[in-house]
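G., the chain you wanted modeled:
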Amino acid sequence: MRFAILLLALVCACGGGGGDAPPAVVGDPQQVMVLLEEADDDEAEDIRKDFGGVTVEQIGSSAIYLLTLDASVRIEDVLDELDNDARVLVSEPDYSAESPEGDPADIPVLGGDVVASIPVQPELDALMLPAAHAISTGAGVVVAVVDTGIDPAHPAIVGHVMAGGYDFIGRDFDPRDQRNLRDDDGDGAIDEQYGHGTFVASLVLAVAPDAMILPVRVLDAEGFGTSSTVAAGIIWAADAGADVINLSADLPDAPEMVREAIRYARDRGALVVAAAGNAGGTDIAFPARFSDVLGVTSVDATGVRPAFASVGSAVSLVAPGVSILGAVPMDLSPSGTVRWSGTSFSTPLVAGAAALVRAANPGLSPEALRQRLRATATSVDPMNPALAGQLGSGLVQPLAALQ
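Predicted structure as tokens:
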């Protein structure tokens, strides 16, 4: 399996809430992504030579290539020329964004909750999981957690990690949640997203306890990555056989290459579930805004939307996302758990529900699976009268989707 060796810049993990959506910026100013009509290494190499590229790398087995330009080349000029090049379907910068969790006020809250409390926490009561588990536990389904990596030895996760993950940040086959003990973004907090992927994985397993987790690391401990790392992670997950891909991250623009990666995954049978974002307004993040993605936002335990949760017509479903209990590495919390809020953590609850339904109905296409989850949800408009039509089909209901 081929993979791209990608350079790190910025994409956004969507855990804690707060802040306006950041403007679209470019991660590495000398990187361009191009989509060809089909994967063709020779043609990609010709493009590299024609446009002053230093390297050109295929992303997975797709027709997307990452072109790194010489420092003397103006990226704006190259993009203009690529727009008129018959060999190239689409070209764009390698977009990036700043994580909304950069605010130190949005760090997870430590407590004394034990790991065994995660799947039985009252915040998940509305999902009626014990009854759903009498029908399906997600056995045989692979859920890719495309995030900051996971701690595979954590008691909430151990035994449920599938081999074959990859780290697009460290560029190796060790996709563990990792920290570097530096304040890389200069916001006064060190590694504030360390544990994010572990937390997400534990919530997938709270809903689908017999699913397998495929860890794909596309964000660092500060919650940063690029559209190229995200696209590469989605493609890697699809090639590795993921049935469901959880993406608790967002981008500030509509990167066509990430859209193409999602199409690639869909064509291989994977459903992508993505966080709507924590900007608090109606500007749903990408890729949750794409029509073939299940975009998820947050409600509290009573079904009321919290102020941080982005809403809008692109939302598909809601799930609990306020003060949720989940797992983090033991060096972050002595109990191995914290409470955290954000659309990042509503998303794996929906991904877990998708795993339950896929396990019970392995022949369902990604679109049929998406539609079943939406058709069986419970409206939360009565609890949010001012937001009617902006909270999708409502609260995900795994039991109803299985019946």
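The chain has two domains: 29-93, 104-402.

Shout if anything looks off.
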